[in-house]
Amino acid sequence: MSANEREFVDSNVIVYAHDRSPKSASEQAKARELMERLWLQGNGCVSVQVLQECFVTVTRKLVRPLDVDQAYALLEDLTAWRVHSPNAEDVLAAVRIHREHVISLWDALIVQSARALGCATLWTQDLNDGQVIEGVLVQNPLR
């Protein structure tokens, strides 16, 4: 697999794929379909930040939260993907992205992680669908 086939997944997409509440069935199906495709193709990428955000969200913020063991198993599975561990230089790059593209620092760090892993696509609902930031195409799988 070449780097340009790699696809970075933000925590909000992963959370939708594991949300068990009936209110978001359409979004759940779309998120699950994307996650299944990435598992089959071996193209999935995340960052330590995404893993942390996923854990907090699925254990505390869902109507029907996962228990700690279920959340641990989810994160353990995701560590089979390429995982970016941001360093100090990545934080500085994220600050530059934040400033130049007028997005939150947290979203900028997600973009930087996608860049660092050589991802062509960033799957998120937090940024503008179709936008290209630092050479990474933003796509919203839930639209």
Kindly describe this structure.
This protein has one domain: 3-Layer(aba) Sandwich (Rossmann fold), CATH 3.40.50.1010. 53% of the residues lie in helices and 13% in strands. It has six helices and six strands; from the N terminus they run E-H-H-E-H-H-E-H-H-E-E-E. It has a six-stranded mixed β-sheet. A hairpin with a 2-residue loop joins strand 5 (132-133) and strand 6 (136-139).
Summarize the structure in short.
The protein is α/β, with parallel strands linked by helices and 143 residues long. 53% of the residues lie in helices and 13% in strands. Strands 3-2-1-4-6-5 form a six-stranded mixed β-sheet.
Helix-strand layout with pairing:
Blueprint: E1 7-9, H1 11-18, H2 25-41, E2 44-47, H3 48-61, H4 68-78, E3 82-84, H5 88-101, H6 105-116, E4 121-123, E5 132-133, E6 136-139
Parallel strand pairs: 1-2, 1-4, 2-3, 4-6
Antiparallel strand pairs: 5-6
Helix pairs in contact: 1-2, 1-3, 3-4, 5-6
Q: Which sequence of SSEs, written as H and E, runs from N to C?
A: EHHEHHEHHEEE
> What is the fourth-level CATH superfamily?
5'-nuclease
DSSP strand count: 6
CATH topology: Rossmann fold
Name the average pLDDT. 95
Q: What is the top-level CATH class?
A: Alpha Beta
Runs in which pLDDT lies below 50 for 5 or more consecutive residues are: none
How many individual domains?
Answer: 1
For the CA atoms, what is the radius of gyration? 14 Å
- In spatial order, strands of the major sheet run 3-2-1-4-6-5
Shape: globular
Tally of separate helices: 6
Q: How much helix is in the residues?
A: 40-55%
Give the termini distance in whole angstroms: 27 Å
Oligomer class: single chain
CATH architecture: 3-Layer(aba) Sandwich
How much beta, percentage-wise? 5-15%
